[in-house]
Structures are given as C-alpha cells and as structure tokens.
C-alpha cells in the first residue's frame, strides 16, 4: 500500500511529497528507505494518572505511607487516590532494620512492584528511591527498574550513600554538582524510556546547609526537568509556606512525619499552603506497631490475642482480594471454589 503525503501536513518547511509504503507485516518504507515499525504501548497507567492529577487539577494528592501488601490493600479499601511506598517501612518490614540506608535497589524495587501491581488500575504509587543506589549508571538502572515495576513516581535525594532517615539527626549531603548528576541521570533514563513516571527531586540539605541552599538545589533540579520538589524536614510551618512561594508554580510534595523533626501540618493546612502532594511516611507503620504490640502483650498476659468479633480470616482475605480471585477462577471455568469459601 502506498500513501502520498504532502510535506506540509508533516510540519516540514520544504516542498514535495513523502511516499510511505506499508507491507502486510507492518514494515514500511519512506521514499524507498526501509524503516522499523514503531509500537507504542501505554502500560504505565499509574504514572499517566499521577501526571494527569498534577497537570489537570489543583487538588492535593494525599498518599498514606504503605510498606507491604496488606497496608496497601487497606489504603485502597479506604479510598485514597494515591499511595506512597516508604523506605523506612520497607526497611523495617523486609529487613527488620532501622532506616540507615540498608535497603538497596532489589529490596525497594521488588516491594514497589508488588504494591503497584495489586491493582494496576488503582491509585498510583509514589516510591522512595533514596540516593539512587550509586553513580549515574546505577541511578539510570534504578529508574528503569522502577518504571518496569509500574511505579508512578519516585523521589531521589542528595544524601551521601551512607544515608539515614530524613528525620534523624546527623544527615550529610553530597555537593550540588553530584546531586544534579543524579537528577540528570534520572531524567535522561525516563526520557530514553518515554515514560510518564514523575521525577521528584528531594533535598535533605536543611540540617547541614540551611534553607537557602535547599531552595538553590531544588531550583537547579527543576531547571534540569524534575517534575516535583521535596524539601525534607521543615522546621516550622512558616518555612513550609515560604518554600511553596519561593518555588511557585512548581509543585511541591510535603512529607508529613508526626513526632518527627518538624511541626505537624494537617491536610487542610497543606492544601491551604499550596502543596500538591502530601505523603505520610509512617501513616501505617506506626499504627501497625502499636496494634501488634498491644495484641501480643495481651496474648502473653491473658493467653488470647483478643481479636474483635467478625474480624476472622475471611474478612482479612476479602481485603486482600479474595472475591476477585474467586471470580477469575470461576469465569475461566475453574471449579475450585464451587462449594464456596
């Protein structure tokens, strides 16, 4: 099949006609020169959804911090429009260790992939990427693996490789040049893969260098193409409000850690300040600790856990997609659940 197309319709400044010849196998030639067929697959639905939220709305996207499949399922059941995979929670739940840079790419990517694909059409997942786990090549590899995992957005920071939780004392950051190398490597990787994944530039420089240096670093990251900024560890509400003004109209993410290094800022306050995304890193991890500890103390003391009536295995499994699994089996013609569950 031949298609003659005027160059003007292809936004060309020269005159003439382009002849495109398409064969039955999908290959084609342009003016007799063979070209490889291009296939575009929109598989990163979470990333596209998150980017659309940021572009088409002024709504504050509230993302509870989740650290495993159950906490993510509960957050989806409650109806949040976004989720955040916390690095501290991933380190605690998968490794049983403190957030001191011990979780590496494999730990973080596999956890993010599981959470993001519980419901590929559900709320988009933002995931912690720490420092990118190495130099430019490792940053690029990390970005590619996060994209392939279905992550909608990630933040990458300027702490040294021997990093720690953003709400602990004694943080140190790399030079501005090294930080921008990480941001540049991340941006190049996502562009090379034609991904909508949202690149969030995070700085932890407040402790070591002060507010002005944080703004300088975030502006430089913005100029390199980062989509969102994150200044970690605000010391006051006034400072948080000022950061939004100093970086406007660039969207900012607020990491709210209750009993952390900064003040408690509510969702309503963050919305009024002008933040676009708000994550609660310890939003499920801390309550899980309290609930588990209370239950196990009762078991040790009274010999029973004391689970409330109605909260049996089936209810928990329903939160984890029990009925959807049964439906898939039944619609496919399976008979494993004909007698119910």
TrEMBL record:
GO molecular-function terms, A-Z: methylisocitrate lyase activity
Alphabetical list of Pfam families matching this protein: PEP_mutase
UniProt superkingdom: Eukaryota
Reactions this protein catalyses: (2S,3R)-3-hydroxybutane-1,2,3-tricarboxylate = pyruvate + succinate
Entry-linked SUPFAM superfamilies: Phosphoenolpyruvate/pyruvate domain
Family (UniProt): Belongs to the isocitrate lyase/PEP mutase superfamily.
Entry protein name: Oxaloacetate acetylhydrolase
């Amino acid at each position: 099949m031949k298609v003659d197309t005027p160059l003007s319709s292809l936004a060309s400044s020269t005159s003439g006609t382009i002849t495109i010849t398409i064969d039955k196998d999908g290959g084609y030639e342009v003016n007799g020169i063979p070209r490889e067929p291009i296939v575009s697959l929109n598989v990163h639905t979470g990333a596209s959804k998150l980017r659309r939220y940021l572009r088409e709305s002024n709504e504050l996207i509230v993302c509870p911090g989740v650290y495993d499949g159950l906490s993510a399922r509960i957050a989806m059941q409650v109806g949040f429009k976004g989720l955040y995979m916390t690095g501290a929670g991933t380190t605690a739940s998968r490794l049983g260790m403190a957030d001191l840079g011990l979780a590496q790419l494999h730990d973080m990517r596999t956890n993010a992939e599981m959470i993001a694909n519980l419901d590929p059409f559900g709320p988009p997942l933002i995931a912690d990427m720490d420092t990118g786990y190495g130099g430019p090549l490792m940053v690029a590899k990390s970005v590619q693996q996060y994209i392939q995992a279905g992550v909608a957005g990630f933040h990458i920071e300027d702490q040294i490789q021997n990093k720690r939780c953003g709400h602990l004392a004694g943080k140190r950051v790399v030079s501005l040049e090294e930080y921008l190398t990480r941001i540049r490597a991340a941006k190049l990787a996502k562009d090379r893969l034609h991904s909508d994944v949202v690149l969030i530039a995070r700085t932890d420089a407040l402790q070591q260098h002060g507010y002005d240096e944080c703004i300088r670093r975030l502006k430089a990251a913005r100029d390199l193409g980062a989509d969102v900024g994150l200044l970690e560890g605000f010391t006051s509400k006034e400072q948080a409000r000022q950061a939004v003004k100093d970086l406007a109209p660039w969207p900012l993410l607020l990491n709210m850690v209750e009993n952390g290094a900064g003040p408690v800022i509510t969702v309503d306050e963050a919305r009024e300040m002008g933040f676009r995304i708000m994550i609660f890193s310890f939003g499920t991890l801390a309550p899980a600790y309290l609930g588990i500890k209370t239950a196990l103390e009762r078991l040790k003391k009274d010999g029973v856990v004391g689970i409330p009536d109605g909260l049996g295995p089936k209810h928990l499994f329903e939160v984890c997609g029990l009925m959807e699994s049964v439906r898939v089996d039944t619609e496919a013609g399976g008979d494993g659940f004909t007698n119910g569950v």
